[in-house]
Amino acid sequence: MNINNDCFGGSLKFNVGDVVCWTNIGKKMTGVISGIENKLVGGRIVAFASVYCFETKSNCDVISLNLKIVSKSDAIQQEN
Description:
Elements: E1 19-24, E2 27-41, E3 44-53, E4 58-63, E5 68-71
Antiparallel strand pairs: 1-2, 1-5, 2-3, 3-4
């Protein structure tokens, strides 16, 4: 049996600035990713995203497996 020692929920599909959605006890939440980090939880590395939630107007840490991309950030686009 092969055991994958990679980060649980780790993915390269999320970037800072992406607009994402997730559910929290049946309520749909939406926000923008402000940071991505790996934390040690239960002896395993788990990927979390720091998300600024539009509904609560505060930052919250969400496990990346619960996130769904609504809109990708365009890092190439420059401000005027």
